[in-house]
Amino acid sequence: VILEGDTIDFGYRLGATFTPFEGTNIGVAYRSAIRQTLEGSLATPTPILARFPVKANLNLPDSVVVGVSQVINDQWQVHAGVEWTNWSRFRNIPIVNELNGRPQTSLNFQYDDAWFFSGGVEYKYSKDLTLRAGIGYEMSAVNDRNRTIYISDNDRLWLSAGASYQITDRIKLDLGYTYIDVKKASVNYNPGHPQWNPAAPVYYTAEAKPYVHIASVGLTYRWDDPKQNIPVQPVVRKY
């Protein structure tokens, strides 16, 4: 079975930043869920090759992020954050035949909600050089019950390091590296699996141990004059 399709849809983001104390910043952000109508085609090889138009409604998850940043002194700053993603809304997705309006098949994901916890530190080594390090732990939406060989995900440990160097008043260089260690993931496809197809009873087991390396380089150029320090006037409302 070959299923393919495409769609364009829209969502929104909301965010706010609070400064309850000098040197303390708290940020909250919300990203909306996005309901997408995927339109495409489904091809089946039996009894003869057939292709017909299909559609599916995807409810992609909303998420909430909360972050805290605290200035310790002129050199040290610490950060912490937590993110919740509503993957539990990504359950069963019927694939509907547009010719007769009937479900042709379905994608049964049965995901759980995902969480990401992180912490980091910044150290201003000199006027021009800032060093960073961070750690994070991600609780995957995929578990032993619903894992597949094509989405062999599991909980992840994130380790990051980076630096920023102010080359000139206008040019800044950013370097970063992240190593993601994914917990060993077991796959057991049997009649108890959410995507088990009794019409094609193929049993299999597998084990995956993914890991990821991410390297980044950024160069920032300021077109304004950094020496002209124009303070931003706060908005004050009195009632």
- Helicity range: under 10%
Strands in their spatial order, largest beta sheet: 2-3-6-7-10-11-12-13-16
Low-confidence stretches: none
- Reading the helices and strands in chain order gives EEEEEEEEEEEEEEEE
Strand content: over 45%
Tell me what the structure shows.
The protein is mainly beta. The chain has one domain (13-37, 46-221): Outer membrane protein transport protein (OMPP1/FadL/TodX) (Porin, Beta Barrel), CATH 2.40.160. Helix content is 0%, strand content 59%. The chain is built from no helices and 16 strands. The strands form three sheets. The protein has a nine-stranded antiparallel beta sheet, with no helix packed on it. A five-stranded antiparallel beta sheet has the order 1-4-5-8-9, with no helix packed on it. A two-stranded antiparallel ribbon has the order 14-15. It is elongated. The termini are far apart.
